[in-house]
Amino acid sequence: MKANIVILPGDGIGPEVTAAAVECLRAVAKNHGHDFQFAEHLLGGCAIDTEGTALPESTRAACLAADAVLLGAVGGPKWSDPKAKVRPEQGLLGLRATLGVFANLRPIKVHARAAALSPLKPERLAGVDILFVRELTGGVYFGEKTRTPEAASDLCRYSVIEIERVLRRAFEFAQARRRKLTSVDKANVMETSRLWRETAVRIAAEYPDVKLEHQLVDSMAMLLLTRPADYDVIVTENLFGDILTDEAAVLCGSLGLPPSASLGAGKVGLYEPIHGSAPDIVGQNKANPLGTIASAALLLRYSLNLEAEAQALEAAISATLDAGIFTPDLGGTYSTQQVTAAVLEQLQ
Ligand code: NAD
Ligand code: IPM
Ligand code: MN
């Protein structure tokens, strides 16, 4: 098949990890007789430097016209002055809103050998396979912000429609998995959470085969570390999902491993690792590329409908981990390029 894929390397280690993922996608295309065209565009700090805006119009238009978008990461100390007028992260939020990708899938799978590097006891990690569905285009990220010299505020708002559509996605994924859905909120304090919970209870009637449970976000943070194997699909609002998934990455052994897929009602999906631009290791050929390569596998699955190809790439990642070919975040001594070469070798 033919596919146009927009690559947004972004900032920090973004260009290093997207280069790795593009190499893997090229290898998949060659092995399976596909024609993938790649076009690189600017997003984030690099776009601020050259265009004065974090999401240039040319990038927006290219993403809307693409079959899928693969992103590295944006942001870094150069653009982090609290008084800055434009921020790299605004570009990413603008892109998510533009593409309408309200459901952010963040699968947390524990690979046995990598998990040995996790600070958690191995018996707690056995059988962990969680799919987070994070609401991505609403909540406090997109509410009105105010600032005076004396005070600041960020409004958290959710409409019923925003909650319903992400919950339906989560129920559908749960139906195709182990049929358990945990909805995470802060309904003991927040009005948006009470609306969220009420909506979850109502929508659950449409999915009688799925067992719905509710968990407050503070205790969820604890349970993720004490009983992670108990969870199947976890659905939650934007900010809680952001925080809980970085925590869940600890189960995998490194923040460099989990991928993500952001999907909406539109045709274009956005794929990115869950980590950031890692300014502390930029340019050292140390970044773990596997989260981005695994995001490319999700791109093959969800945007291009190439399930066999997605599985081939996931198997190559798994075999690389089986062989203990680890970047330093996993306690290894292999470089970004050596890990990528190992995945490419496995793909053959
Ligand atoms: P971070 O995820 O960039 O880094 C946290 C820690 O994890 C660092 O020690 C880093 O070296 C390590 N790490 C992250 N990814 C790694 C990888 N692939 N391989 C090896 N180690 C890895 O989080 P931060 O330091 O809080 O944020 C830095 C910048 O990244 C900020 O500007 C933030 O806004 C941005 N950010 C962007 C995204 C995104 O573009 N989607 C996501 C998160 C953070
Ligand atoms: C992520 C990041 C982003 C978020 C930032 C960079 C806007 O942390 O993708 O997890 O908070 O969504
Ligand atoms: Mn995050």
Automatic annotation (TrEMBL):
<feature type="binding site">
    <location>
        <position position="242"/>
    </location>
    <ligand>
        <name>Mg(2+)</name>
    </ligand>
</feature>
<feature type="domain" description="Isopropylmalate dehydrogenase-like">
    <location>
        <begin position="4"/>
        <end position="343"/>
    </location>
</feature>
<dbReference type="GO" id="GO:0000287">
    <property type="term" value="F:magnesium ion binding"/>
</dbReference>
<dbReference type="GO" id="GO:0009098">
    <property type="term" value="P:L-leucine biosynthetic process"/>
</dbReference>
<comment type="similarity">
    <text>Belongs to the isocitrate and isopropylmalate dehydrogenases family. LeuB type 1 subfamily.</text>
</comment>
<feature type="binding site">
    <location>
        <position position="218"/>
    </location>
    <ligand>
        <name>substrate</name>
    </ligand>
</feature>
<dbReference type="GO" id="GO:0005829">
    <property type="term" value="C:cytosol"/>
</dbReference>
<feature type="site" description="Important for catalysis">
    <location>
        <position position="141"/>
    </location>
</feature>
<keyword id="KW-0560">Oxidoreductase</keyword>
<feature type="binding site">
    <location>
        <position position="96"/>
    </location>
    <ligand>
        <name>substrate</name>
    </ligand>
</feature>
<dbReference type="Pfam" id="PF00180">
    <property type="entry name" value="Iso_dh"/>
</dbReference>
<keyword id="KW-0479">Metal-binding</keyword>
<protein>
    <recommendedName>
        <fullName>3-isopropylmalate dehydrogenase</fullName>
        <ecNumber>1.1.1.85</ecNumber>
    </recommendedName>
</protein>
<dbReference type="InterPro" id="IPR019818">
    <property type="entry name" value="IsoCit/isopropylmalate_DH_CS"/>
</dbReference>
<dbReference type="InterPro" id="IPR004429">
    <property type="entry name" value="Isopropylmalate_DH"/>
</dbReference>
<keyword id="KW-0432">Leucine biosynthesis</keyword>
<comment type="function">
    <text>Catalyzes the oxidation of 3-carboxy-2-hydroxy-4-methylpentanoate (3-isopropylmalate) to 3-carboxy-4-methyl-2-oxopentanoate. The product decarboxylates to 4-methyl-2 oxopentanoate.</text>
</comment>
<feature type="binding site">
    <location>
        <position position="106"/>
    </location>
    <ligand>
        <name>substrate</name>
    </ligand>
</feature>
<keyword id="KW-0464">Manganese</keyword>
<comment type="subunit">
    <text>Homodimer.</text>
</comment>
<feature type="binding site">
    <location>
        <begin position="76"/>
        <end position="89"/>
    </location>
    <ligand>
        <name>NAD(+)</name>
    </ligand>
</feature>
<feature type="binding site">
    <location>
        <begin position="276"/>
        <end position="288"/>
    </location>
    <ligand>
        <name>NAD(+)</name>
    </ligand>
</feature>
<dbReference type="GO" id="GO:0051287">
    <property type="term" value="F:NAD binding"/>
</dbReference>
<keyword id="KW-0520">NAD</keyword>
<feature type="binding site">
    <location>
        <position position="218"/>
    </location>
    <ligand>
        <name>Mg(2+)</name>
    </ligand>
</feature>
<keyword id="KW-0963">Cytoplasm</keyword>
<dbReference type="GO" id="GO:0003862">
    <property type="term" value="F:3-isopropylmalate dehydrogenase activity"/>
</dbReference>
<comment type="pathway">
    <text>Amino-acid biosynthesis; L-leucine biosynthesis; L-leucine from 3-methyl-2-oxobutanoate: step 3/4.</text>
</comment>
<keyword id="KW-0100">Branched-chain amino acid biosynthesis</keyword>
<keyword id="KW-0460">Magnesium</keyword>
<feature type="site" description="Important for catalysis">
    <location>
        <position position="186"/>
    </location>
</feature>
<feature type="binding site">
    <location>
        <position position="246"/>
    </location>
    <ligand>
        <name>Mg(2+)</name>
    </ligand>
</feature>
<dbReference type="InterPro" id="IPR024084">
    <property type="entry name" value="IsoPropMal-DH-like_dom"/>
</dbReference>
<feature type="binding site">
    <location>
        <position position="134"/>
    </location>
    <ligand>
        <name>substrate</name>
    </ligand>
</feature>
<keyword id="KW-0028">Amino-acid biosynthesis</keyword>
